[in-house]
Specification:
Elements: E1 22-23, E2 41-42, H1 43-52
Antiparallel strand pairs: 1-2
InterPro entries: IPNS-like_sf
């Protein structure tokens, strides 16, 4: 439990793949009964898309198969 009488330090860590890394479904999860829903894309493509749309837009819609 946090103490209300002593100072504390909080830190946030963010992680993301390298810009050239491919983001896609794991091959073992893609089957005839459960096909791929999104095409593979790089993290750079996703970030570019992310900054061109409003927060309320679904960024993954642009990568749908």
């Amino acid at each position: 439990m946090a103490s209300t009488s002593k100072p504390r330090l909080s830190a946030i860590y963010f992680a993301a793949p390298a810009l050239h890394e491919c983001v896609s479904a794991l091959p073992e999860t893609v089957t005839a009964d459960a096909p791929r829903r999104y095409r593979p894309f790089t993290w750079a493509e996703y970030k570019k898309t992310m900054y061109t749309l409003r927060l309320s837009h679904n960024r993954l819609d642009l990568f749908k198969v």
